[in-house]
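Possible race condition, two jobs.
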Amino acid sequence: METFDAQGRPPTMLTESERALARAVLIHGPIARSALTNRLGLSPASLTRLAKPFLDRGYLVELDDLADGSVGRPVRPLDVAPGLGRFGGVKVTGDALEVVVTDVRAEPVAQSAKPLETHEPRAVAGRIAGALRALESEALVGVGVALGGAVDDGIVRFAPFLEWEDVEFAALVERELGVPVTLENDLVALAEAERWFGLGRGMPGFVVLTIGAGVGYGLVVGGEVVRSSEAGLGLGGHIPLSDSGPLCQAGHRGCSQAMLTSGSISAQVSAALQRPVSYEEALALAAAGEPAAVAVIDAAADALGRFISLAANLTFQDAAVLAGEGIGLFAIAEERIRAAIWAGRDPRAEPVRLYVDDSGFAAWARGAAAVAIQSAVDRLRLD
């Protein structure tokens, strides 16, 4: 069965209504036609006419009759067809590749982590191709690559972790794999994954905050990810959060990078205990009540709560998705984090709803796969 155009040929573009239908079923399916008409603002006749070519081409299917509790005929929900192909997602860091293969809804079916011994662009593209081939024997429909930095139309404008400037990286990976490649900033990709398939699905707006090797910030407003040429600048990394915190590498006292990155937390506990302590051990020591670790983790928890409340206050969004490889902090300090959020909010404001994606590095790779899926939807051919 022909599915997406794996060659990336310029197709007859979908209309806005066709694209909205494809996205709605992909994100919310299986979904009743009545729910689709309400969501898309269409009449039943218009929906039937709009859905017919998708059904004829095998992109969408009608499921078996399902009684929805209302009076009348059972409904036949629409859903994406099974077997629409696999997608690859790759998160590139300065020293590793996090690689995932997913289904059409960005659910991982295989994943791996590979060390990255070189930053030479062609070599990195080759390692990405090799890692994906090792996970998936079938042809991929599309691949997404996400990294920390500024990207534009397949070009890495700059990526500090990789020391790249103006690298046409999507084209390099496409030559290796022979399928369309979508290149995106890692925070934008993660926000898209949470919006389409993750904890933010169905929410009109929310903030995305990530902690780990760095501190990241993304925003969804009106059902769309806010995109900016400054997405790769790490602007969330130096927000002041503590007057008495440590210094970051740029000399800022108590900024989000100094208070919340795994490296800073590890360094603070190591200095207090006079021995090397990893981030994971620092969390475990704090959970066990070790005084020095508790002091550092408590300060980090207060800072994270303050960061969340600032983000909510300044964006008027009362939902936050927390993610990143360092989000284990939330599991051991949830009560303190929530107290700090509350302290930073007006008592008349809505409580901030927290959603925690604890999948670690896999969340970043899944974000890359999600933008590949979005691109594939835009390449659908109905002619």
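Job #2 (started ~2 s after job #1):
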Amino acid sequence: MELTKISVIVPFMNVEAYLEECLESLAKQTHPNLEIVMIDDGSTDGSSKIAEAYADRYSHFYLYSQPNQGVAEARNHGLRRATGEWIGFVDSDDWVRAEMFEQLHKAAEKTSSDIAVCGHARQYGARVTEFNDEVKSIVLNREQALYELFKGEIYRFALWNKLYKKSLFANVTFPPGKIHEDLAISPSLFINAEKTVVLAWTGYVYRARENSILMERYHKGRMDSYEAWEYIIEKMTLKEPAVMPEVWRRYTWWTIDALYTVMHDLASRKEANQFFGAIRTSFIKNYDAIAPHITDKKTAVKIKMIRSGFFYAKESNRLLVVNIMQRLQRGG
């Protein structure tokens, strides 16, 4: 009997320095029924030729091209092309261990889970952090899995260290033209899953590189995350209200982290304050729901500062403020 097929979606655009290592790691996968769905998102360097070579060499590698539309639409394209019963995602500048998809699939089948998650290592230049080869795992129900997703200690919103039943993507698509697309859809996938199995074993290697989208200086596209958060808050409130305290805590952490990033990245006081105003506008709409769940005193002080229209970081001695008219107009 033929083993269940897994479709691995690999969107890429101008990553010729890393793509071969990524695809080679997929060519070495031990799961015997795999298809690799490569989506060329308008590359202008040598990435396309590298992908073409793998499609020519291996019958289970498939290459599709589209004009540059961004990672979200490339992943949607991949989902439309995928024929497997299970879906995995690999970022084109990362790589995976040979047993990754076999281990994830076996764990999911053994526990009748809809999502399987493995650990990941990080690569900094030539240095890779340690692998965990423990074989232990835990199985979570829907509420537990969502709680852990927002708590963010054993796994986070990233798609790349997980294996999903394709049926979870029914009526779920990546928001075209947006970044933070993992954040936008991950909660919906976990809401659709009855059970999730989490492996301690390390299967994925994430490459930290300075010129990735989320390592760029803070820019307007990063505000896409607040559009995603509004959708998440609405859906979680309706579907899994018991998890909302953890949603509010993660949303608060996300906001404070964004403000520190703004301070670090933007030397222009005017530009930094404009982003602070936009972030604050989103945050204070939810302030009354958030505040009761923030028990850490330092964090409570920070969210009160945001509500009052300023944010000060002692570490960098920087101050973000919104002007008085903006504060009055937006309910501050």
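Residues 310 and 321 are 4 Å apart (CA to CA).
Logs attached separately.
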